[in-house]
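User: Let's play a game. I give you a shape written as tokens, and you guess the letters that built it. Ready? Here's round one.
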């Protein structure tokens, strides 16, 4: 073993020791800040992309808006399925079963690539049929078809990237995905205007240019990620024989990944239903909801950052059969995310009028926005509690729990209460805001109760290997 390999294995052992024995809060911060920064990179690129596409015209913006539910759906499927990689990899790593870990990483990669190829083929052939279900004028549908069909071709790259990212995060390495994602966003920021507007020697591709830029970025990230996975550059080695699909493990991966994908997909559909309801009430409430969502995104960045470290921490500790520490991680992480977001909620509440005036000069929107934040903002810490518990279930591999909680919180509580308060109790727009807030309050309560009543601390890996060695 050369010096570089020894250093890699030493780094892996140090990260594992930190996750299994180190300070819980410090480890959460260590694992979480790169994820939060990566989300900021993505937000900046999305903002710039929207700005450039808006210069093409109303139909082009409408086409991307119409496409968003489909994009979000397939992103949800990719993220959900990759959760199987996080759970299985982290638990094998925590159990110090390195050979089984390497083999299961290869099986997850094979599963994700094959599944994404099927999606790409299906989506490319039936793009128009899928988009027609969403409505829209012929001009918008035509542009949306070009946009979505191009993105479908990049599905294998997208799924490969999520596999790579989930595997490294399962080992406690969140910095490399952040660096690679930052480089990808940098490439996209440069290429996007060049290919949209045809600057210099580049072709004028319009909306197709925006889509192909996204695909180029994904291919760049996935090729580097795949090279890292296959060459053992991060301390694990995937032999080509490990990549041969094995039905037993495809079933195992699907049993963990599919419930997670279903939960995320139904969340995406629920968000679309809620937005549709608000849009029917009027332009002002929709603007208030949009601005308010952007303002509370700061708290969500904290939530996603802190909870990103939870899944590998839970997975590795359950793999090491350290249930007591897994429960302690749940308690401390829940309190940490609640406390941090509560501080941010006080800030948003105190400056709610000034913050809304940054986005709108209409007094009606500012007034309604102040009411929205007054009702909603202190429910955000409770969303953090729900999200922390959900991440624990993901890391444990018990994704059916997280799927059921997602459905209960959004469909059984938030959307149901929103409809009741608006249509039955006639509370107007305030009823919508109350329903959304109550979804967070009650969702946290149900999550806490669920974590006490149902078993989640049994690991999903087997002690005996199922692969020929």
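Assistant: Ready! My guess for every position:
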């Amino acid at each position: 073993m050369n010096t570089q390999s020894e250093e890699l294995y030493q780094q892996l052992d140090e990260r594992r020791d930190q996750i299994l024995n180190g300070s819980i809060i410090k480890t959460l911060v260590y694992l979480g800040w790169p994820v939060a920064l990566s989300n900021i990179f993505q937000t900046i690129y999305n903002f710039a992309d929207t700005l450039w596409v808006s210069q093409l015209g109303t139909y082009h913006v409408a086409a991307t808006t119409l496409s968003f539910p489909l994009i979000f759906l397939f992103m949800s499927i990719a993220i959900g399925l990759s959760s199987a990689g996080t759970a299985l990899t982290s638990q094998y790593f925590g159990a110090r079963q390195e050979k089984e870990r390497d083999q299961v990483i290869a099986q997850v990669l094979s599963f994700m690539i094959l599944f994404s190829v099927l999606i790409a083929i299906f989506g490319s052939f039936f793009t128009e049929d899928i988009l027609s279900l969403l409505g829209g004028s012929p001009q918008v549908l035509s542009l949306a078809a070009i946009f979505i069909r191009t993105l479908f071709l990049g599905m294998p790259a997208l799924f490969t990237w999520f596999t790579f990212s989930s595997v490294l995060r399962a080992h406690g390495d969140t910095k490399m995905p952040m660096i690679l994602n930052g480089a990808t966003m940098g490439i996209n920021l440069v290429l996007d205007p060049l290919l949209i507007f045809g600057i210099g020697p580049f072709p004028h591709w319009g909306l197709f240019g925006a889509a192909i830029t996204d695909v180029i970025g994904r291919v760049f990230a996935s090729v580097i990620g795949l090279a890292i996975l296959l060459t053992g550059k991060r301390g694990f080695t995937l032999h080509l024989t490990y990549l041969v699909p094995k039905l037993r493990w495809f079933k195992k991966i699907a049993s963990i990944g599919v419930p997670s994908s279903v939960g995320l997909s139904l969340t995406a559909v629920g968000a679309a239903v809620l937005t549709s309801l608000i849009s029917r009430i009027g332009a002002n409430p929709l603007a208030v909801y949009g601005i308010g969502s952007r303002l509370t995104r700061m708290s969500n960045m904290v939530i996603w950052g802190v909870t990103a470290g939870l899944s590998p921490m839970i997975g590795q500790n359950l793999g090491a059969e350290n249930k007591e520490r897994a429960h302690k991680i749940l308690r401390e992480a829940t309190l940490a995310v609640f406390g941090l977001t509560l501080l941010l909620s006080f800030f948003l509440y105190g400056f709610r009028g000034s913050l809304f005036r940054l986005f709108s000069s209409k007094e009606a929107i500012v007034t309604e926005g102040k009411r929205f934040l007054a009702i909603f903002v202190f429910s955000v810490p409770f969303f953090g509690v729900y999200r922390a518990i959900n991440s624990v279930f993901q890391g444990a591999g018990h994704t059916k729990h997280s799927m059921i909680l997602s459905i209960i919180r959004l469909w059984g509580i938030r959307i149901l209460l929103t409809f009741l308060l608006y249509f039955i109790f006639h509370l107007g727009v305030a009823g919508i805001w109350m329903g959304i807030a109550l979804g967070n309050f009650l969702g946290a309560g149900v999550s806490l109760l669920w974590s006490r009543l149902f078993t989640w601390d049994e690991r999903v890996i087997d002690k005996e290997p199922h692969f020929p060695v």
